[in-house]
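FW: tagging you since you asked about this chain on Friday. Here's the raw sequence from the shared folder, copied in full. Didn't touch anything.
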Amino acid sequence: MRTGFWGLELQPFEVFGTEHLVGAAITVLAGTAVVLAGRKTGERGQLYLRCGLIAGLLFFRVARHWWRIDTGIWSVQEELPFQLCNIMAWVSIYGLGTRNPLALKAMYFLGVVGAIQAVITPDVDYGPFHYTFLESMGSHGLVVTAGVWAAAVEGYRPRPRDPWLALAVMNGLAVVVYPLNLWLGSNYLYTVHKPTADTLMDFLPGWPWYLLALQPIAVAFLQALMLPFVRSRRRSPASGGASPTSG
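HL: got it, structure written out here
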């Protein structure tokens, strides 16, 4: 069996251990630097940064499949694009390339809420010194960065109904994916069972109750994303209307 950075040897991963915290800190600092640079630079600089984000997202998408094919573990049960973060990686690529308002909305709510949990508690089975840890932190960090970019740089401004629309989309995806999971024997969107790695879901009850328990948690996260805009919304009547990217 192949071992090392590109191998298949299972290694323990300590959530909130030193390696995890260092990786998360680097991810946050890098994402913050990209967003701040986007706010300070001009249109050409923003174009270069958007292209860089797109290239990074594409790299990790391709590299993930490459590693799994090269090691012989690629399967339809795990590699179809039906996990929320996987979906949002492709939506982010489209949104960064086109600046489509609907894509920016999805990037901010679905991308940030979906991917930030994976940065906090990565679903990693091969230890912190393995390609999959780099891929998990890098790909999810880029999805979060793209979502923040949508609001901080592209000027997307959410409406009060947007968190509820995002919740409806997440639940709609789960309803569609669940029968597919039963057919394939997969666990996309974790509708069949909890992740095998240590995650925040470990604190929730078993199936199917954790799916219900996730609803108020999702609402709390989605509503928290409205907080940066509370003050600007209060000033909006005097400012002459909403941003053109708020719809």
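FW: The CA atoms of residues 58 and 93 lie 8 Å apart.
HL: agreed, and The chain has one domain: 18-230.
FW: great, closing this out.
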